[in-house]
Amino acid sequence: MDLPCVQWQDHVAQKWRALEPKLKEQFTSLLEIDDVFRCALRLMRQDDLDFLQQVSAAYSVQKDAELAAKCRERGNSSFKTKNYTAAALHYSKGICFAPSSSEQLSLCYANRSAALYHLQHYQECLDDIDRAVKNGYPSHLLHKLEDRRTLCFTHLSVHEKGREDDQKPASNDCKGSDTANSPSVGPLTVGICPQVVVDSTVEKGRHLVAVNRIAAGEGILTDRPYSCVLIPGMEEVKGKVGRYGREREVLFGVEDRRCHRCLTETLSLVPCDGCSYSRYCSTGCQQEAWEEHHRWECALGADLMAMGVMSQLALRVALKAGLKNFLLAREPIRDEHKECFNNHSSDPSTSSYGGSYLNVYNLLHHLNHHSPALRFMCAVTAATLYLKLSKAGPPPVSWSHTPQGPNKEGEDADWNAELWMLGSAVLQHILQLRCNAQAIVVLQDTGATNSPVQSNREIRIATAVFPTLSLLNHSCCPNTSLVFSTGGIIEPSGSALSADFSEGEAEWRHKAQGVTVTVRAAKLITPGQEILHCYGPHSSRMATQERRRLLQEQYYFLCQCEACSQHQQDVEEPRQQQPGAEGRDLGLLCIKCKGSLKKRSEDREAVVCSLSSCSHCMSLSDVNNRLQEIRVNLEKAVELMETDRPGEALELLKKTLCQSGVILAETHPLQGELADATARAYASMGDWNNAASHLERSAVAIASQFGKESVELGRQLFKLAQLHFNGGSRGPALSVIPKVRRLLCLHCGPHCHELQELKAMEDCLQG
């Protein structure tokens, strides 16, 4: 859970400790969200608001012409070295800082248009030229923009001519195999497939159950978030000066190159006119965000950043829902709507009763499971947001005409009447999101732009609440996999998905833009089986006791999934333990006999050789020191590769592999990272055979860590196919391609771009 900044947490914790015992007891005894919120509101003081203002000064989102000029200067430096992507990102930051209609704004737009031109983004370049002129670009420099405009039109006309030629009828021998261009590929369908229904029990609540057989790889549901918030500060472009003094690319967060509404990645972001933080891929997203939530968030930008992602997401959900939906959701379910909540109900994403907000509202908030101190922090945070909103301007239109709320001294009468339930709604959603928020993850390229082999990793870019996805219960060995899409045209997940749409969903589908999650069957699911996904703790990566502890702490349930139940049975009915079962292999080797090390039950600060004939013991501090030395060398080698010194990197990696072989098994994740980095070094030098050999070693660690049917293994084997292809190893390449195709199709669907590249490689090798 993304809690508020540490300073605010400490302030509220001190406020809680200072409460009189009677007040603490009264607060702790409250059982209703409304009562908790009103109690916190009564306890608010001006010094709480003053402290937040002091803390939020570190998160300033004000426009600043000087900062805009500095960003433009950094962009100019990157432009001179022909790093046009970094230049465009710097200019974009300058655009966000620059006050409206200022000279700096026009200069940043003009400079970004130059960077976009060199990146061959001609239409975006034209858009920036128009914006530069509109914002008062100096008249004596206009001829530069007009020359650039002419060049863009020339390139675009040539491109359009090429498109027309491509669209001419082709011979029957040249039928394309790209399914993305097939007529069958249409807009995304949001909903649950017909093979699944919503069931409800006292023990599990509402959940999804298969009524028909679902094959592995088949789409189960596609959902879009009710609301989402981009996470600031996550690394998106590798950065600044390396630990060892070598220059690297400049650091940018995801907020610098992703739309704050649809999360699409772009180099030509459109800024908010009122703050320096929020930015969008288009004026369309900018306007939609403004109408839905940003017109109220804008003035509170710094406060919301100090309050954390979850608080901001809770506010967005409440603002989007509005009073009408909130009141409707609070009403008891009437007879005519009961069928929506009884067993085997219809698709919740198309429910006419309250739409998707009803599904969000009915998520469990676990009020009485949260500790009193955490409950107090959430309540004070919600009350603070309520008060800040009341001082920022008029009430949100969507929350107008509220029935008279409780009268409290010192409150503005209009806001007392209009918004007291908004604060209560925000508190409810903050508590719900602790257990129901979903991280949105995407693949980020980590290798050089011109690297012959794809290199990437998953990063978390946003937090969201999905109305339908939230129905899935947890399993430590799930039968599904999730794939997220952001922005742009969304490819279909199969024709089997429900076509029963509400009017609002039909309109969204027509736009075919935004964030979505597609859930696919990761294995065969038979009728009667529940649809399950993993909340984080996975049986292939974590011991049962640790998984259960984490799930109990955050989600307030004792996991009884297949993996945990099997462990419980093994404890109650001792039998010969299987390799890799509980007491799982740590991936560490005994430095004396090369046997595997295991945790020492009587001493948590030591590990011991599992072979009774050896029983050599090592302290955890000794093990950690050895691992840290390996990690440092690995990081240094990666930096050497990023500065085009693969030879030096390879020598360091060879030395480190000798060191790691003493204590790390082939299945240890760090050994896998070393092997992967070594493969990259060999590939950079054109030694494809050695690169493939080390990548195969890395795949062993990936399979051990994530499983032989995991998407992570599929992506690693995809890199292996690239290496074999580049090295001209026809047999090995054709051997691994079917494995990659099966795993990627299973988890990512038949339309992912890697499958198209595999098809091209296969056709070339077989042709």
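[next item in queue]
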Amino acid sequence: MGTQTDEPLYARVMRRPRTCSALETLLAMGFPRSRALKALVSTAEKGVEEACEWLFSHLSDPSLDAPLPREFVLYLCPSGPLEENLMDFWRSCPSNPALAIPPHITLCQFFPCPDEAVSPLLSSLGTLAERLQPSFPQALSLRLVTAAAFLGLFVRDDQADVLRSLAGEFTTTATGIADVQVEPHRKQLHLTLAYQLQSTERAQAERLARCLDPSLPAAWHLRLYSRDLRYAGQETQRVLYSYYPQNDDELELIPGDFIFISPGNSTEDISKSCEWIRMKFCGQPISCSEGWLAGVSHLSGLSGFFPENYTERAHEAATWLLHRSYPMCEEIEGREMVKRKGDMAVAPPIPPHSFNGQTGDLQLHLTVIRHGERVDVTFGRHWLARNLDSNGTYIPKDLNLPPFLPVRPAGHRAQQLDPPLTRVGQLQAQLTGEAMRDKRVPVDAVFCSPALRCVQTAHYIIKGLGLVGLTPCVEPGLFEWMHWLRGVGSGGTSSASGPGEAGGSGGAEGSSGVLLSHPWMGAADLAAAGLPVDESYRPLISPPSLSPCESYEDFIKRIDCTARELMALCRAQGFHSVLFIGHAASLEACTRPLRRLPPRPQREFVINVRKVPYLGLCSIRELSSGSSRSWALVSPPIPPLSHGPNPTFSWSQVLCDP
């Protein structure tokens, strides 16, 4: 007989396995140690799955095995009402380079840290934050300081000494861990509001800065960021649209990726960019064409040429990684809490006529939004015929088609001329409204184009906002450029149309090029379809006054006059925050004249219009009052809405072919 013990037999046999770290798991999967470390650091140590995705996407990266450490920096960042106040200021100064990085006080300079030293660095920072938290000031005192091309909030001297002590301890520790000299920030500690201001911008920025309230409560966090030192400060493009390479020297574009290019954007600079890519990666001559840039993908590390109009300008800081964030003071008490319904956060109702607490000269705020996904662009100009049975009854044959069509006196012809949204388009609009609600964006009035897709978009945005009782005002003056409707009814497609604005819509005119009729639904028909509109509103422009022979200049003038009259009407009514729901062309046509800029050349305008996706939006804010009013574009209050294509699936063609 064996010796009896108090420990059960299964416990002695089945020992609980030790939990493996992410690094150990990657090594057990067969990845080299250097690559595993690089993947973990490049994904902010989020986990094994993210590191594997990074490794698989960088398998062809020529710099994958290069011993290139990332650069790190330590910031002290506010959250809460102060941060919101600062973000409102930055949205009013869109050309300000400071808005590329979240509000912060710099505690040390950028320093390189080898991949194997990142984990000990994070541990030491956490220990330091926990030890110094009790002595950290509960409220930092900030004062506004202005200079020729700089605006900032400076920390009171005695509190700055506490922050310098914290920064000194961190840099001493980091110097020992990273084996490099880490320098603390030696200038006066401050939070930068704006810099590199032009003389024409300084007065406006300073006026806005004096409206800030630095005494607002804030919870301060120590945040450690990192960046790829190879591309620090380099010109960066954000990918908007997918592009699959047609040649070996081209770069695949994936929406959301960032492309680092060599500095400059002139023909000479682009040629230098080509030479940079050739020398660094290709080893052979490369030619460069107008409209193409050469760069390196942040997502894959691959290099090549790509079409510039598939991207937009971005700041290199958008590619930075946040590794850790440690609270240095108690979270703010007494703030209005977000109510929860199930697992979804629901913001409190938006107070009427509120304007994010802004004071001073700020007046009207206008947001212009393109409508959602339209049926005819998604399913083709014959979408209706394909979904009618032999009796002419509409029976949708795709889940993305609307389950029913509104009753229209003109019958099916009107459905072709004035197509509705898809169900995805309805969801796009409602998601936009919900995002605005969650960000507590105030909305006092909504004006929309008479096109059914715009009325529907306005309806679902208002539904997402949760504003019971608010109905849109239908204004024909906001309709798209009438020129884009010419020739479509006879089967043609305007080459000048924006993405989905006229091409394939079924048309609105006959072969003679004369507009047959305005097929828009009246208020009674819209109400019967569950789309109530403000019947007391009297449009500025009547539908018969819209000519199919409208020139580009007349279109810009019509939209500008309509926008100005509507804003004057809102000002008289005491409204502050207004939505326009229109078309792809509406974003520029409504805002560019308000900024006192001449119209772009027609060809350039058309190219810009084609870059506006469904539910693309922009915001513009009035900056002065009285007889002299100026307007400036500001950052939209909500992020963009992106999703991939999903073509029609035919199971019989895919699965039944021999």
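[queue empty]
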